[in-house]
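Slide 14.
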Amino acid sequence: MHKNSIADILAGRRPSVSLGVGGLVACLAVVFAVEAPACNVPVGILGGQAETGDGSTSGGGAIDVEGDGGAGLPGEDANAGAGTSGTVASGVDPAVVVAVDAAVDAAVAVAAQPAGPGESIHFVVYGDTRSNAGTHQKVVDAYAKLNPQLVIHTGDLWNKYSGGTSQWTGIITKNANIGALLQKNLFLVAQGNHESSSEVLGYKPTLVRNNALRYALTMGNAYFVILGMDPSSTAAVSFLQQQLATPEAKAATWRFAISHYPVWSGGDHPNDGYPALEKAMDAGNVTIHFGGHDHNYQRSYQLFRQKPVDMGDALMASTGTVFVVTGGGGAPLYSVQTIANTKTVKSINHFVEVTSDATTVDVKAWTVSGQLLDAFKITR
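Slide 15: predicted structure.
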């Protein structure tokens, strides 16, 4: 078995095999500048084998500091997860165990810090998670490994979950780094047609900004405009125009718009564009629009005035907008076909990863099994 490094912990991956408490606390002390207690007693983290102070291992009797029976994380060591929930190894001070777990939680939270003004930003977009909670969990588990700084959900959240919003919350918070984003108001949503306004606005911690269904924010070098459910409404188009005219939007390197309904789609909810909305996007240099509603993945050509300006994968900025449908978060998949302005379509569970730096937006769509579904770049 391998041992997770401090980099792994900071990347949001909890130790999947046993570590000595002294060794773990000593490592964390380097990060957090705290005094590490001397401890060479064998203790396992998340089950598996316990490691002794001399580096050898002993099986069984380890502590599961999660209190969940030691279930290992997806993609981690298959032997992890055999610990006894809530059991402290003989001779170990429980306070030390609590301190270690708190330190790991703190390390994970550090990794979820937002990008500062003008900095590169790494975020995930996905949506349509209203049913099939098990599939939704697989999607979240997969993107949690990428440790994004922001998650944006394109709507249709939880209406068919037997456990309601509590079950949905459990899925999001299972991975501590994504749970930290939720707590910090860095897990944001566009309202879907399967949840009411009061459900979205009443959820705690909040999933929006300014207690509104349409809102905008700057993070890092990007400006985000969330248009709510229907981006074609007069109110939504007006809101987009107003937000794109602000100094914050004009100062941003990249501009993204998000709504539940897609702008271009060849799925079960077909659509061939919204002229007024796209005119506003053209005028405001919107880089990408993300929508959901159709339970599949779709990517348009780069469009300006509703016509393709580039049909490739290496695109130039400020020449048009790319329209992405990302509705593969767990709800039943829909069939999809290519239409006049779409380049790539696939009916599969997935999420979209976006990294934007000073010169490039790098977009990758991933399946839950880690296969690259689609990729394109936009360069200044």
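Speaker note: Residues 1-90 have pLDDT under 50 and may be disordered.
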